[in-house]
Amino acid sequence: MSTATIPLQRKEKTAATLLETCTVRVGSTTFGMPITYILEIVGAARPQPVPLAPVFVGGLVHYRGDVLTTVSLRQLLGLPPKEGRQDLLVLESAGGIFGLLVDSVGEVLTVSSADHEPNPSILDERRRALLAGAYKLKDSLLVMLAPEQLDPMRLSAALA
Amino acid sequence: MKALRVLCAGCSSRRGGCVGAMDELTREFLIESQEGLDRMERCLTDLEERPRDAGLIGDIFRSVHTIKGTTGFLGFKRLEKLAHAGENLLGLLREGKLTADRPLITGLLQLLDGLRSILKTIEAEAAEGAGDDAALIDRLEELYVPAKEKAKQPAHAKAGARPASAAPIEPVKPKPVPAEPSSVPPLAQPEGPVADAAPAPHEAEGDAARSRTQGSAAESTLRVDVTLLNRMMNLVGELVLTRNQVLQATSADPSMTMLSRRLDMVTADLRESVMKARMQPVSNIFSKMPRIVRDLSQSLGRRVRLQVEGQETELDKSLLEAIKDPLTHAVRNSLDHGIEPPDVREAAGKNPEGTLKLRAAQEGSHVIIEISDDGAGIAVEKIRQKAIERGLINADRAAHLAERELLQLIFLPGFSTASAVTNVSGRGVGMDVVRTNVEKIGGKVEIDSRAGKGTTLRLRIPLTLAIIPALIVRSLNQSFALPQGALSELVHIPPEQAAAAIEWIEKAPLYRLRGKLLPLVFLDRLLMPGGEHKIAAERDNFIAVLDADGRRFGLVVDGLADPEEIVVKPLSTVLKGIGLYSGATVLGNADLALILDPGSIAMKAGVTLQDEESARAAEEETGAEAVKSLEYLLVEAGGRQAAVLLSDVLRIEQLPLSRIEYIGYRPVLNFEGQLLPVEDSGGVLTAAQGNPNAQIIVVVCREGNRQVGIAVSHVLDVAGGGDLFEAGSAQRTGGVTLLKNRVTGVVDLCGVATLPAAQAAQPEWSQVGEAAL
Question: Which helix H or strand E contains B585, and what residues bound it?
Fold first, then answer.
């Protein structure tokens, strides 16, 4: 966590805005999700598979008395399914709440808009729609997810 | 805030379209006005009964006055004008210058409808619309102008014979005819038949409702949005699950056990309270009926008395909404097809005034709503003819159907016995809509009718919508919930029998169920096409025989778990789109299960209409066959096997030996105050004597008009037997039948009665019974 550095950064670059993001790992990539979209993080979720569901659906999870449809980021990116535990981000979108299944949840980072770069043009079209550019960290890239693009409703519309 | 009422689903959905477009004040006004108008409607039908009830008139006046007052403030000019006209009229009524006669009440009901429709427009468009109420206002003015004129007339007219009571009525009738604008329906003229709505029980309720809405009770209630209640319900459900886990985790630690037990109790209480908050009395919909009955009986020329019972019975709000339409349908049907015109009734020796009874009562986890009339009843022969005529059933099959089964035919789409189609009913869309709507919420419809005596329609509604009984089945290593409503039976085929039991026509698997081919759907193959599945002979097969909207098929699953009462959770739109699941649920072990939708599965698997037709034939024919080849309950008593005709068996009771009492040497069973003679030819009772803990089994049978019990040591099976003994004698005494390749004696139920000891004991019993009283 870089909370200690926030005031410092503010002093140096007043023009740049800061964004708190939650990092998640899927496969070998580190993705970022703005924390304002996250309602809750549920560790070790056991999603119940839904036969015949669209491929991106990771299954159902029970969340606060509701049954939540989850999107598997792995399946969405076309990666092979992962055995064992997965972590779950509960996200809020215009269409309601849904879950996002990831391999693991990392930490909360504060990134500065000064380090942001848009999606590279060589990225394939499907990924370009799901991603919102990247932040250049000291020794790696933080690939930003576009939360509103991950809504199952929107995904199924895109599939159709 | 006046009414003890939780903001209802109806209101919120009606308001749904305008959220945001309307300010809080207007919304509040709409809800209050609607409540006021509902109250006014109740009072008006009551007023017809008791035209001089000042309290009622005062109530109606207040409703209209409140609307007028608030509209002026909110700037709804059209509404204000109409309410003002109504208020003038009601003012005169209150002062006793007018009498609440039929035309006046009809006029007031029109005012009510007028106000309602404007409120509806405001709700939808946030503006009162451009309609013109001049005609209605004129109408209302016509009703009170005579009274005013009368008042202006010289004193001698007034002094004489109470002008207010009789005088104003006369001029009203002829007047409206020429000046009548076509947009307003003519005032119903007081015809011969008089509809007497709202009898005594209803009055009592009305009074109670009135007193409830007044006084200190008003301050102790508040409105709650239904969405908030739904959310609370969900959270409570979550709490229950967490509690279950806590209970499991803490069972080892004694200090935690106390705490978790307390948590358990509090959670249960909380859950119950939240459930209660969603309940509303059925009077909310029953109170709409007097108006419907009044209007209909007038337009149909019937005389009908409406009796209402059990209004305080409570039902979940959403269910109440769901049964509103079926109930209205049923009431319409009763008035149109059931209760005859007064002259016909009189000719049949009945009271010219028919009775329509609405009754609500709670029975276990269901609420029973009965709509019964003392009308013509349903002529079974007519149904038979009509059904054949409309091609709903073929003549052969129709001839075999029993009376009860014939009655069920009226629930088929497109059925109506009414000879003429009226605008009230007869288009054949009534009863199947009633059934579909009630079944949609997990309820059942039963009908009982006697020609000439009347018809009773019984709706069985579950207490809450959210909870349904379901069977948990396993397939693809996960659990699915199968609603019990569609499930008719279960068949188990072990692996070694699978190859022989499941037959194929090309790629269609079939199973012979009592001689008829039942199409099979393998759940795993359906859900995972192209996956690798074990063939039937390598695993256990359970066939759930389902009846979904008339489509009959067998769903093959890998395993069965327990039946459970499940809480239905809605699925997201994406998953609803798959079409096979009607929801999801959280099971007792905190696992999730998808709820299967038998109808969609039948469709998806291609159980076609042709199959449906043959399935229906199969169902009916097996019914007919069952009558031909008798089925027996095989029992064992004292080491010997015996058979009891299955159709005679009412139930099987297991009870301690101490329950058996003796009158003389006759063993009897005191069953809920009724004495049941127990037949013990097998010596089961004698053998168990002296063993205080002995449990015995009594098969309770029907014999003529009475019941008899047969003491047995085991109930073995149900099997079909041939009519071996029919050639010898028509009497069943000493009958034997071939059951499971063994010659088995049939227990002679008539014989129980003809025993000399039983005959002699009969008067003795009644004496004992009296002595006990």
Answer: strand B581-586
- pLDDT of res. B251: 66
Chain-centroid distance, C-alpha A72: 10
Chain A CB contacts of B527 under 8 Å are 51-52
Of A89, A86, A93, give the one whose Cα is nearest residue A152: A93
Does one domain contain both B275 and B287?
A: no
Residue B408: C-alpha distances to residues B75, B380, B413, B452 (Å):
55, 10, 11, 18
| Phi, then psi, of A157 in degrees rounded to 5 | -65, -40
Residues in chain B: 773
Q: What is the pLDDT of residue B704?
A: 67
Segments of chain B with pLDDT less than 70: 1-22, 145-219, 248, 250-251, 364-365, 413-430, 464-467, 536, 549-550, 608-630, 671-674, 704-705, 720-736, 738-741, 750-773
Nearest to B469 by CA among B491, B486, B448: B486
Q: Does B772 touch chain A (CB under 8 A)?
A: no
Backbone φ, ψ for residue B664 (5° rounding): 60, -125
**CB within 8 Å of chain B, chain A residues 41-80:** 48-54, 57, 60-62, 64-69
Yes or no, beta carbons of B578 and A156 under 8 Å apart: no
Euclidean distance between CA atoms B702 and B680, whole angstroms: 16
Co-location of B23 and B87 in the same domain: yes
pLDDT band at A96 (very low <50, low <70, confident <90, very high): confident
Average pLDDT over residues A18-45: 90
Predicted pLDDT at B544: 92
Smallest Cβ–Cβ distance between B592 and the set A48, A51, A54 belongs to A48
Of the listed ranges A2-11, A121-130, B379-388, the least confidently predicted one is A2-11
| Architecture, CATH, for domain A3-145 | Beta Barrel (2.40)
Which of A50, A57, A155 is closest, CB to CB, to B594?
A50
E-state strands within B158-317: 279-281, 304-309, 314-316
- Total tally of structural domains belonging to chain B: 5
Terminal Cα distance for chain A, rounded: 41
> Is residue B347 domain-shared with residue B409, that is, in the same domain?
yes
> What is d(CA B97, CA B144) in angstroms, rounded to the nearest whole number?
9
Q: Measured in whole angstroms, how far is the alpha carbon of residue B286 from the centre of its chain? A: 13
> Looking up tokens 């109606």, which residue turns up?
B60
Q: Which helix (H) or strand (E) holds B523?
A: helix B523-527
- pLDDT, tens only, B279-295: 888 888 888 888 888 88
For residue A61, which residues of chain B lie inside 8 Å, CB to CB? Answer: 592
Give the residues across from B473 on adjacent strands.
B480, B560
Q: How far is CA B17 from CA A97, A147, B122, B230, in A?
A: 22, 28, 11, 20
pLDDT at A101 over 90: yes
Could you tell me which of B135, B119, B136 has the C-alpha nearest to residue B127? B119
* 3-class SS of residue B351: coil
Q: Is the pLDDT of residue A13 over 80?
A: no
| Residue B209 within any structural domain of the chain | no
Residue pointed to by tokens 């005959």: B759
Whichever domain contains B421, its CATH number is: 3.30.565.10
pLDDT of residue B438: 82
- Which residue type, as a one-letter code, is found at position B51? P
Question: H-helix or E-strand containing B762?
Answer: helix B756-772
Residue B18: enclosing H or E segment and its boundaries? none
Residues B486 and B603 in one domain: yes
Q: How many CB pairs under 8 A join A and B?
A: 70
Give the Å distances, CA to CA, from B270 to B37, B241, B281: 34, 13, 21
- pLDDT score at B365: 67
The Cα A84–Cα A100 span in angstroms is 16
Do β-strands B366-373 and B354-363 pair in parallel, antiparallel, or remain unpaired? antiparallel
Q: Determine how many CB atoms are found less than 10 A away from the CB of residue B153.
A: 12
